[in-house]
Amino acid sequence: MTAELLLAFVLFAFVTSVTPGPNNTMLLASGANFGLRRSLPHMLGISLGLMLLVLAVGLGLGQLFEQVPLFYSLLRYFGAAYLLYLAWKIARAGAPDSTGARSAKPFSFLQAATFQWVNPKAWIMAIGAITTYTPQENFLTNVVLIAALFALVNCPTMSVWTVAGSLLRTWLNDPRILRRFNIGMALLLVTSLYPILADFGGARS
Fold this sequence. Notes:
Distance between the termini: 44 Å
Shape: globular
Subcellular location: Cell membrane
Number of domains: 1
Transmembrane segments: 44-62, 74-91, 143-168, 180-197
Structural class: mainly alpha
Order of helices and strands: HHHHHHHH
Strand content: under 5%
Helix content: over 70%
Pfam families: LysE
Largest sheet: none
Membrane topology: Multi-pass membrane protein
Protein name: LysE family translocator
Radius of gyration: 18 Å
């Protein structure tokens, strides 16, 4: 891989990692509700899950979806349904130490890693990384390099959202404000589904 292509990919990884999406919306909410330290497993799980997804796409899963489009469609709509469920949970969340939310917990490492497989933006990022920035020469080596770089860029970049959420905790001490904040985050998460829902509507028409 040339230095120019490598630099272009790092820029791609940075932009796609730092811009709004399901992961960053949930990290913002997690930072606000649970703080930075308790959100670390969530952040690390996203990075590992995305790295494994990029590896899987590079090693042939993307070709399988091209051959059997139904698999990809089912995955997308299952992911959309799961995101709606997460939005509902975020909207109902209260302060972690409040009487009604003592059982509230941030995403675990495994939950965050698994979530990448039903995250529409993660699939777009993985497919774009492989199809656009991975040279055919020494392909397998380049796939591993791309996946590792994505994880390295992704983790510190998305931490901006978690830190931003944690900085809002003082302001969100008021349960009423926290509830409105969580509802806003839930609505943003639902909004991130617009491309999928629009595509689904177009397919039915």
